[in-house]
Amino acid sequence: VAMAAPLVLHLLLALLLGSGGRSGAEPERDSLREELVLTPLPSGDVSATFQFRTRWDSELQLEGVSHYRLFPKVLGQLISKYSVQELHLSLTQGFWRTRFWGQPFLQAPAGAELWVWFQDSVVDVDKSWKELSNILSGIFCASLNFIDSTNTVTPTASFKPLGLANGTNHHFLRYAVLPREVVCTENLTPWKKLLPCSSKAGLSVLLKAERLFHTSYHSQAVHIRPVCRDAHCVSVSWELRQTLTVVFDAFTTGQGKKDWSLFRMFSRTITEACPLASQSHIYVDISRNSQENETLEVSPPPTSTYQAVVLGDRRTYAVYDLLNPATFSGSRSLNLQLRWKQFQDIGYIHYQPAQDRLRPHLLEMLIQLPANSVTKVSIQFERALLKWTEYTPDPNHGFYVSPSVLSALVPNLVGAKPANWEESPLFSTMFPVSDSSSYFVRLYTEPLLVNLPTPDFSMPYNVICLTCTVVAVCYGSFYNLLTRTFHLEEPKRSRLVRWLANIIRRIRGVPPV
Amino acid sequence: MRKSGLPWKPGSLQPAPRLARRKTEKIRGKHAALCFATMAVMLGLPLWWKTTETYRAALPYSQIGHLDSMLLRLRVPVSVVFIQGSLPIVDQQKLPFTVVNERDVPLKCKMKLKCRFQLAYRMAGSHEEKAFKKDTIEEAEAALPLPKEDTLGSLNIFVIPEKSSLLPKDKMSYIGPKRTAFVRGTQVRQALTVMGQRILQVAQSMSLTDEVLAAALGDRLPEDKVSLDKRRPLKSSLGYEITFSLLNPDPKSHEVHWDIEGAVENYVQPFLSLLSVVGNFSMDSQILYYAMLGVTPRFDAASSSYTLAAYSLPHVINPVEARLGSRATSLYPVINFLLYVPERAHSPLYIQDKDGARVATNAFHSPRWGGIMVYNVDPSAYNTTKYPVKVDVDMVPVMEVFLSQMRLLFGIPPPQMPENFLLGDPPREGLRSWEVDRLVWARTVENVATVVTTLTSLAELLDKIGNIVIKDNVASEVYRAVDAIQEAVVELSAGNLELAFRYSREAVTSSEKAFFDPSLLHLLYFPDDQKFAIYIPLFLPMAVPIFLSMIKIIVENQKARKDIEKVD
Predict the structure, then answer these.
(1) Total structural domains in chain A?
(2) Has residue A354 been placed in a domain?
(3) Which residues constitute the domain of residue A319?
(4) Is A512 contained in some domain?
(5) Closest by alpha carbon to A440, among A135, A92, A162?
(6) Contacts with A11 from chain B: Cβ below 8 Å
(7) B500-532 pLDDT, tens digit each
(8) Which of 4-23 (B) contact A at CB < 8 A?
(9) Which ipTM score applies to this complex?
(10) Which parts pass through the membrane (chain B) (predicted)?
(11) A271: which residues sit within 8 A by CB, 6+ positions away?
(12) Residue A307 bridge partners (DSSP)
């Protein structure tokens, strides 16, 4: 936009109709809650999980003019245009080392993962899915446009809607993973732009790309789903959760020390809360592990503490309320160990074989695993040659196979009170669990890198040259045979040759030439 | 090659049959070589041609060529009704009849443009006479029976008696909010000629003014007719997305509320419903926090306020635009209207024009992009200890500004009429019917011109680059565009503006679809060196022997002819 001109307007429009004033003070129709959970990991690393939840009490699907306040316009338009029921997009760099880091609040596979539930009014789900992934690709600057039928599946059991849903007809679900996707700053910037406070105030100040990508794990996600507006659940609200999980490495970021502070992690400190947020909290995990003698000290002392059963364990969090005028400086780390058991008993198997160049394999198993057991699921496969145009530019790098997913309900180690879902902190309410004796876990394995046989790519040209040579040789001799005249010819020899031949002939007793 | 000059071994064969045999052998070789050559030419060449040919569907090149130099005649049907006493009796008896006035518009390109006003004169009927017994001109207009032809682009002009008190003394004509105008009659000799001029002037200013044509044809008009100001309107498109954004850079001090729902419903929707002929409109609004302008305003000590100078305005938009968010779900152009509530540290904020004077509306607009208005918070609101301050935006002045800007962006500038014309107030919705007509005229002519350019350059491109594949669907789009544009031209010269506009839009859609079809690019960049890399290993060894034996045959034939001549 280059030209701009100040303008002396001719106000010829008589618009003095109606009062024009605001029609009373209506209740806020949307709200923002933000929180940051700092969890010192057993390995000495520290994980930071940001969650920004925008709730909008509006029926997005309605046609006509829509007015956006905190909810980002671009996502709202997307939902209403493509009749999306639920949308979950995660972009992850690195792999969550469950063995060293314990359970994450939010799980995501390496690369890009997108799964969408469409509403049952959608006629052509595949077309909507294709268009939606293309638009998301534009919004988040990710190569989601490479999602097509070859890497899209429709899981029947594992991915259920996380929000309100009338039916769970899995025909309206699409799931795709792009394990090769590299996540970088250009994906973070559009994600940050969706936040109401941008990166100007509140927790979002900490989101400095330079630091967030200097970590051993980075996972950012967008989850959109419909939720109940109130306890009666008569009307629907839309919830947008933007989550970001990073793990700062004790050695590269922390120079080998386990002392952490916001400044050391993000090279920023929080100066003010986001004035638009109705809740803005920082939680620091200070639960004591009985096997370790270390204790965690946080300063400044927290305003309050919060105890909850999270991921099957009782945890204590120091709570800082940013809306309460106070300043913060840092937090410390603590060893935390998590141990879990595995079981075995196959209950349900769903296998959808692949079709070449159309869809991948899908194997889903519902299994109950006995305690202290090892379960191995192995699949045999053959390496095949692809068509030569199907090879990527660097085929020797190998081909990725999407990570496998383990969704499990794990019994709690301790009993928990059924908490009010709407009141409790965001990190404990991502996955709705019907009874509080167990918690939901989703694990992702590493993507598998398979080396496929790669042909010699100059082969086509070699083939052309070889066949041409063969044709030319055959054709040439054929042509010569047909067009030339042949007759006998007296061998013409030089005098020296004749003299030599005569000598030989004389020796042999044959008359000379 | 035949080897010769050696003595034949005596005793093996007699010389005469040997020579004859050599000769037949030679002729057989010659025939074989000729056979090869014919096979290569008759079979090989067509086969090669057929298999390597790019598919190019036939296109109406000659019709597209004619489009470039076509004659575009814009016919405006005007019905002129004379009220009793507005003409001398002698002239009244000549009625009814039709006068045609045609005017050439000079263009830079080969296309010709003619504006044709078809004035159908008749006397008023009794219903119409009755309406003119009213006291004021507005009442008279309201009392008029609905004209038979109240279609898009048509005009109704009533000639009232010279002494009529409906018009103020110093005014010669009145232009109403509908497609109706009143002109004062005359009693002089040659009254019809005089009236003809007056009526033509009114009709012109209600339909095809120079501004309308300049907006439509842009750079096709000679330079002296176009000013920068005229290039402001948005390009013709099938639809537009309108976004209202409230920018609140300082949510700590201001809690801004705006009743955009009410404003859109009361002001914008009625306005746009009138423009719905031109395209589809969709609207939405958003509030953006912490969205700053790209320029730090200057403090003006004299008035203790902050100012944005005219020259810095171009730098205001770019940083804001990053936050506005493009519309992801459609391809229509977006028009942005921003209401900026300056942060407390920079308020009040005023926009200065080039001369340093404050802009009364505190707003500016950027052509083809949208408009920005600065809304200052009442300073008395700061007399409080409780922050943020609640700010209720008064939407009436805001919408006045935005709607005026919208008029400018769509190319409906406030009409400029001669001194002695009386202009009726616009209706409630804010747009006069004939203003919409003028916009449709402009859009139709613009569409026709765009399609001509698109089709001509597409034909030229396809003609120039032989590698481009022309698929059947591209060809059918081109045919459809050509048909539609011809229909549009026919309808324009018949005076059916609405149909013409519809056809022209169809033509634009089809021609753009053809021009931007991705299949055109499939083989465009197939480099020649790769072609040769494949052809040479095969064709060179096959072609060289054929060529050599052909040359040899020709040389031998010539030699034989020379020998015969020598013998002669």
Answers:
(1) 1
(2) no
(3) 30-340
(4) no
(5) A162
(6) 361, 400-401, 404
(7) 898 998 999 899 888 888 888 776 666 777 777
(8) 6-7, 9, 12, 22
(9) 0.72
(10) 31-49, 532-555
(11) A205
(12) A316
